[in-house]
Amino acid sequence: MNIGHRPRRLIRTSAALTALGLTSLTLAACGSDSGDSGKVRVAASFYPMAYLAQQIGGDHVEVSNLTKPGTEPHDLELSPKQTGQLSEMDLIVYLKGLQPAVDEAVEQSGVKNLAEAGSFTTLEDHGTDVHGEKGHGEHGEHGEDGHDEHEGHDHDTAGDPHIWLDPVRYAEVAEGVGKQLQKADPDHEDDYKKNTADLVSRLKTLDGEFEDGLRSRKSDTFITTHAAFGYLAERYGLRQAAVAGINPESEPSGARMKELHKIAKKEDVDTVFFENNASDKTARTLAGDLRLKTSVLSPLESVKDPKKQDYFSVMHQNLTALETALGAQ
Predict the structure, then answer these.
(1) Which of 39, 49, 313 lies closest to 191, judged by CA?
(2) Beta strands 239-244 and 221-226: pairing type?
(3) What is the C-alpha separation between 217 and 238, in angstroms, rounded?
(4) 250: helix, coil or strand?
């Protein structure tokens, strides 16, 4: 470790806290000994980013998830301690535009190695109604040069952030995170390459499982309370009709509820989905009015118990729920 760099890092932390109005932090809390384990220190903004970092980094990394399990990442506010510790990280993995508090803290942190998920794939604007095209189309298809030129931190994210719900886009992000880990820790480059390839292979298998599982469906349309599934709908030729928009806290208008009544009847919708981490009141009201069933479709922004659940187990639950609702079983 180059001791000469440490004072500049602490000064940078002080400047960052001043800019954020957090001048009362004790810098000792940043933990100048945090690197004693010899592992690469990675901060991840929320679960899908933390999962990638852990799967790719393996035993070489120590991952800190800024969003606690089971909490809503959109509303994250960082504590002074978290903000200070961010500048001591070797790598930050995040998705710009999803969590304003994280974006601001990252900008002020001065950390050299950043893996901004949106720079490794393509993002689109999705409203409350998405009509997917069957097949994989051109979504996110670009070569290695397209990934390299971004370097993980030169991209302005806009539009729908829920890219991890499309296994193909999530695989692209995994490749980008893997490259940034290789830059942060070249000594273990081969391990990161192997772990990335293994994860991408599993995601390709998951993509095939969704294709096969939904192929014989009787309906393309599903109704959900939160417009989080635009990329998933697009990937597999489905239609997402959402009560609320990208922001899960937004309230639906009376006109939107009437429109959903029409969609449900016209498209022979069977189920109204709600999130496992949000209120089911709106879903149950709509389902009651139309005499439909309710079920859970997870946006996978967090998992309540990471020891019992992970990205793949929850995505398989989502697939089963969609197969049932769309008559594919």
Answers:
(1) 39
(2) parallel
(3) 10
(4) coil
- Distance between CA atoms of 181 and 187, rounded to whole angstroms? 10
**Cα–Cα nearest to 118, from 139, 100, 94:** 94
Provide the token pair at 12: 């940078």
Say if CB 238 and CB 166 are below 8 A apart. Answer: no
Contact 87, 9 (CB under 8 A): yes
Most confident segment among 18-32, 191-205, 287-301: 191-205
Which strands, in side-by-side order, build the sheet including 114-116?
61-65, 40-44, 91-94, 114-116
Give φ, ψ of 41 to 5 degrees.
Answer: -90, 115
DSSP secondary structure of 254-304: HHHHHHHHHHHHHTT--EEEE-TTS--HHHHHHHHHHT-EEEE----S--S
SS (H, E, C) 16-45: HHHHCCCCCCCHHHHCCCCCCCCCEEEEEC
pLDDT of residue 277: 67
SS3 category, 70: coil
Helices 167-184 + 47-57 axis angle, to 10: 60
- For 218, residues 6+ apart whose C-beta sits below 8 A from its C-beta are 268, 326, 327, 328
CB burial readout 177-207, b (16+ within 10 A) else e: bbbbbbbbbeebeebbbebbeebbebbeebb
2's enclosing H/E stretch is none
pTM over 0.85: no
pLDDT in tens, 157-180: 458 999 999 999 999 999 999 999
